[in-house]
Amino acid sequence: MPMYFDQPIRDLAKKRPGPRGLWVGVICLALSGCITPVRVDDHYQMSHEEGIVATGYAVIASQRGDTPAQQRLMAIKASKLDAYRALAEQVYGQYVNATGTMVDMSITEAQMKSRVEGVIYGATVVSITPIGEETYETRLMLSRNTIRELVYNYLQRSSIDSSGGD
């Protein structure tokens, strides 16, 4: 029996969804969780207005050291440096240089380099955590006020550099 637009709504409400309608509903419900925006700082009990959090990682075995304890300490330092790099990327952005060579409509060589440059100060260590037995994770936080100050100082320095002043 075909459904028409002039059919009363109460008649439509009496119909129960069939197996196909039920599956469509389940899939829509499952996918709605995938499109929910999640900010990284929500995981660290920090609102977007308060600042940003960056995470750095380092593998213990790849660090130089005569003893396992020295390697662990070096991994902590390396993970902290990686977190500072991640903060700099968020504050200043990242410079990306990509080149490619094509011969006979085929790529023969492709290179990509990235770099970040900037001054980070005022960061707070949120945590330094061993991840399993192989890796350390360091989380750093930078307050919104410090970010504004860093960007302001960077813009001031850039305008002095571009005008040729000392």
Notes on the structure:
This protein is of the alpha+beta class and 166 residues long. Helix content is 40%, strand content 27%. The chain contains four helices and five strands, in the order H-H-E-H-E-E-E-E-H. The strands form two sheets. Strands 1-5-4 form a three-stranded antiparallel β-sheet.
What is this structure's SSE topology?
Elements: H1 9-14, H2 19-34, E1 51-59, H3 68-92, E2 95-103, E3 106-115, E4 124-131, E5 135-143, H4 144-163
Antiparallel strand pairs: 1-5, 2-3, 4-5
Overall outline: flat
Task: Provide mean pLDDT, rounded.
Answer: 78
The N- and C-terminal alpha carbons lie at a distance of 84 Å
* Largest sheet properties: 3 strands, antiparallel
If strands are numbered along the chain, what order do they take across the biggest sheet? 1-5-4
- Record field, number of beta strands: 5
Could you list the spans in which at least 5 consecutive residues all have pLDDT below 50? 1-13, 31-47
From N to C, what is the helix and strand string?
Answer: HHEHEEEEH
Helical percentage: 40-55%
**Number of structural domains:** 1
**Radius of gyration from CA coordinates:** 26 Å
Number of helices: 4
What portion of residues belong to β-strands? 25-35%
What structural category arises from helix and sheet content?
alpha+beta
